[in-house]
Amino acid sequence: MMHMTTVLTGMASVMNNTEPMGDRLIYGMQMTLTGLLTVFAVLGIIFFVMQITRMLLHRETEKPTVSAQPASPAAAPTALPAAPIAPASDDALIAVLTAAVAAVLADEAAAKGTAVPSFRVVSFQRSSRGRTWNGHR
After folding, report:
1. What pLDDT shows up at residue 81?
2. Which of 23, 47, 68, 125 is most enclosed, with most CB atoms within 10 A?
3. Is residue 113 part of a domain?
4. Which domain holds residue 129?
5. pTM of the full predicted structure?
6. Is the dihedral angle over the CA atoms 79, 84, 124, 127 positive or is it negative?
7. How many domains does the chain have?
8. Residuewise pLDDT in 10s, the chain (137 residues)
9. Please, is 109 exposed, middle or buried when counting C-beta atoms within 10 Å of its C-beta (0-12, 13-18, 19+)?
10. What is the pLDDT of residue 39?
11. What secondary structure, in 3-state letters, does 17-69 show?
12. How far separated are the first and last CA of the chain, in Å rounded?
């Protein structure tokens, strides 16, 4: 191994331009290579520490097994209004909203691996507030 005085003396002579050009280029290449190796060694250490941390913190628990049966599509719930029958446009709106709720519940159940919950619309009435989502009443 080189002593620190040798390194400092060599560096001083390179900095003072007393060494030939070839020696200065070799010294520059050595310093560049040393710097690159140091940087990549530290990056490698950081990478492995992060991988170990990820493995320790994100241990997978056993997921519940899903049955071999394919999930059946959600049965379309029927709207059973208790109030007097509204105009046809309200029936279509209720059907669309009910189908949207059923689809969301089916997606959540599929993600959790549970059975699709059932529901039915018992009654509905319009809000007395002025504006709704799209500004329509």
Report:
1. 57
2. 23
3. yes
4. 72-137
5. 0.35
6. positive
7. 2
8. 556 676 666 666 666 778 888 888 999 999 999 999 999 999 999 999 999 999 888 876 555 555 555 555 555 556 555 655 545 567 777 888 888 888 888 888 888 888 877 777 777 776 666 666 666 55
9. middle
10. 97
11. CCCCHHHHHHHHHHHHHHHHHHHHHHHHHHHHHHHHHHHHHCCCCCCCCCCCC
12. 86
Residue type, 117: P
Cα distance between residue 54 and residue 49, in whole Å: 9
Instruction: Calculate the alpha carbon distances from 113 to 3, 70, 96 in Å.
Output: 67, 11, 25
**8: its two tokens:** 């400092």
Decide: 115 and 75 in contact? Cβ < 8 Å. no
92 shares its domain with 115:
yes
